[in-house]
Amino acid sequence: MDLERKKDLSLYYYIKGIFSTVPFITIVDGYPEELLTIPTIAIESDTLRSLPFEIGNRHGSPQRIWFIDVFAETKSQRDEIGYKIVYDLEEGIPVYDYDEGFPPTVTPTQIGMLVPYDYIEMKIVKVLPELVSKLYWRATISFVADYTNK
After folding, report:
1. Cα 95 from Cα 108, distance rounded (Å)
2. Topology at the third CATH level for domain 3-148
3. pLDDT per residue over 66-110, tens digit each?
4. In angstroms, how far is CA 67 from the centroid of its own chain?
5. Taking the model in full, what pTM does it have?
6. Which one in 9, 49, 51, 128 has a CA-CA gap of 20 to 30 Å to 73?
7. For the chain, what is the total number of helices (H) and then of strands (E)?
8. Which residue pairs, CB below 8 angstroms and at least 24 apart, start in 138-141?
């Protein structure tokens, strides 16, 4: 399995772990395409870029931009979910070797960390009632992460 996919899965399982005691929250890998069940957390990566790491070395330091969308029933629920994610992301996200298998049947070996770079941003997304039949509360959490295998 590609390292980038292992990072995807690691963030997905990290968020699932944060909310493991809250079974009514749906967590999806990618933007929800089916009928939206509220509350839902959707995890999606965006830009992958390789920044020069050192002079004379052609291998860059990979960074990715991540988006975590929160869809909630109330403003309070949106804020509580969003704040929890933001503060937990500050610690970094362990990256695991999912070639060994997947939770809960296997606890794969940790091979590195995704470390948020610069800042983690939570932005409120306003949804106009005239555009949707049911008003819901939404936020997008974004961050850039460096991968380190240390």
Report:
1. 9
2. STM4215-like (3.30.2000)
3. 999 999 999 999 999 999 999 999 999 999 999 999 888 889 999
4. 6
5. 0.86
6. 9
7. 2, 6
8. 138/69, 138/70, 138/71, 138/72, 138/78, 139/69, 139/70, 139/72, 139/78, 139/79, 139/81, 139/82, 140/67, 140/68, 140/69, 140/70, 141/67, 141/68, 141/69, 141/70, 141/82, 141/85, 141/86, 141/89
